Amino acid sequence: MSLKPYQREFIEFAISQEILSFGSFTLKSGRKSPYFLNAGKFNKGSALSQIGKFYADTLQDAKHLDFDVVFGPAYKGIPLASSTVIALFKHYDKDVPYSFNRKEIKDHGEGGNIVGAPLEGNILIIDDVITAGTAIRECLKIIKENGATPVGIIIAVDRQERGTGEVSAVQQIEKEYGIPVMSIVNLELIIEFLNERGGYDEHLSNMKEYRD
After folding, report:
1. Domain of life of the organism in this record (predicted)?
2. Cα separation of 62 and 58, whole Å?
3. Nearest one of 146, 35, 128 to 76, comparing CA atoms
4. Most distant CA pair in the chain: distance in Å?
5. pTM of the entire structure?
6. Burial class (CB in 10 A: 0-12, 13-18, 19+), 27
7. Distances (CA, A) of 97 to 68, 74, 85
8. For residues 165 and 170, what is the distance between their CA atoms, to the nearest angstrom?
9. Which distant-in-sequence residues (6+ apart) come within 8 Å of 85 by Cβ?
10. In sequence order, which residues have a C-beta less than 8 Å from that of residue 126 and are 6 or more positions away?
11. Active-site annotation holds for 106
12. Among 42, 60, 147, 149, which one is most buried in terms of CB atoms within 10 A?
């Protein structure tokens, strides 16, 4: 597996913005991780513009995927989905509708829990990471309840975390729902980048041990 130019740019960008950090972090799953992706730090126009293009580049790479609407799950998925559809239009001349869900159902005005384009046809989900897969399962449930068809998921980083069995959480979702999960980069590519770059010996050792 070798890094594509946009993947290398993404890792460089994520490290420079401290979106990708190295150290010791307790994940939601309770696992101790030697690295962490904080999508909450995509908090400026420049950062959102960049991340949207990285997602769009990844989608352009996956030419086989046919989708009608991009869906960003609340909360972190919302800016990621909106920045991706902007980048698809700006860089690839693709004008794709997007929508997101509310955490609480609105009982006045237009009501419901979906904002933006109706969830119709083939739906692509955009999120930051999949660790245990719980949030993604909730998304898939929402999409199916609206009569739409999930056709793919794209995340920033595939942590390649073990799921409930011997396969990773991402592989588990793919197998369970029969849809592809793409990522801008995965743990293997981050390790490859750090190897290339040099100066990350301690972090590399911790990450390889964690992966194993």
Report:
1. Eukaryota
2. 6
3. 128
4. 56
5. 0.91
6. middle
7. 7, 17, 7
8. 12
9. 52, 70, 96, 97, 98
10. 55, 70, 71, 72, 77, 80, 81, 84, 153, 154, 155
11. yes
12. 42
Please tell me the distance from the alpha carbon of residue 11 to that of residue 119, in angstroms, as a whole number.
32
Paired residues of 115 in beta bridges: 100
Q: Which of 108, 141, 144, 203 is catalytic?
A: 108
Task: Return d(Cα 78, Cα 194) in angstroms, integer.
Answer: 30
Picking from 40, 73, 90, the residue whose alpha carbon sits closest to that of residue 154 is: 73
Token pair of 175, please? Answer: 């197998």
Return d(Cα 183, Cα 11) in angstroms, integer.
12
Provide the angle, in degrees to the nearest 10, between the axes of the packed helices 77-92 and 45-61.
Answer: 70
Q: Given CA atoms 128, 87, 146, 106 in this order, what sign does their dihedral have?
A: positive
> Is 53 an active-site residue?
no
Distances (CA, A) of 13 to 49, 54, 74, 159, 194: 12, 10, 24, 18, 13
Tokens 């559809």: give the residue.
85
Look at residue 154 and tell me whether its pLDDT is greater than 70.
yes
Q: Summarize pLDDT for 179-208 with one digit per residue, the tens.
A: 999 999 999 999 999 999 999 999 999 999
Query: Of 94, 106, 141, 175, which one is the catalytic site residue?
Result: 106
Q: 92-126, pLDDT tens digit by residue?
A: 999 999 999 987 665 544 546 899 999 999 999 99
CA trace torsion 200, 22, 187, 207 (10° rounding): 70
